[in-house]
Amino acid sequence: xxxxxxxxxxxxxxxxxxxxxxxxxxxxxxxxxxxxxxxxxxxxxxxxxxxxxxxxxxxxxxxxxxxxxxxxxxxxxxxxxxxxxxxxxxxxxxxxxxxxxxxxxxxxxxxxxxxxxxxxxxxxxxxxxxxxxxxxxxxxxxxxxxxxxxxxxxxxxxxxxxxxxxxxxxxxxxxxxxxxxxxxxxxxxxxxx
Length: 193
Description:
This is Bacteriophage N4 adsorption protein A C-terminal domain-containing protein. InterPro entries: NfrA_C. By secondary structure, the chain is α+β, with helices and mostly antiparallel strands. It has two domains: 11-58, no CATH class; 61-192, no CATH class. 20% of the residues lie in helices and 33% in strands. The protein contains three helices and seven strands. The chain has helices spanning 11-24, 28-40, 48-59, and strands at 62-69, 90-98, 107-116, 126-135, 144-152, 160-169, 185-192. It has a seven-stranded antiparallel sheet with strand order 1-2-3-4-5-6-7, with no helix packed on it. A hairpin with an 8-residue loop joins strand 2 (90-98) and strand 3. Helix 1 runs antiparallel to helix 2 (28-40) and helix 2 (28-40) packs antiparallel against helix 3 (48-59). It is elongated, with a radius of gyration of 21 Å.
């Protein structure tokens, strides 16, 4: 990277480049500061729209995500320890709030709902909600540690506590602002407490 004072590189580009370098090291706060400084420099370069979009993604607090899991339904004999649990295919929706979006290791407060069809092994299907906290010790989606309170929404769910670790690999994970999670593979495991 050329120094900011170099006459060959406009100040805005040097600031933005330094911001993206800070982001690659996981320093989200410094990256946001440098991208703001690049946007405040005049004249506004053509890349300003991309810098602005990246800054919005970096400082975003509220997020919504959804998932669908396709797997073989457990039979009644397989239900865990005689307790009903979400098994087989299911879908879910999560609403989260990132408490400090510029933290190196962000913490999210989350609320989610899971629904499994009747074909998942429990007559009438299953509906369950969860409230919890998720910590990202590596800064991105590569590893997420969560603690949640499970709440039964009908007679088929459970009221319980859950500790969960999940993670994955693919484009878009980690502290960078690359493409969204395209081709992302995730694994998750948890234990009811």
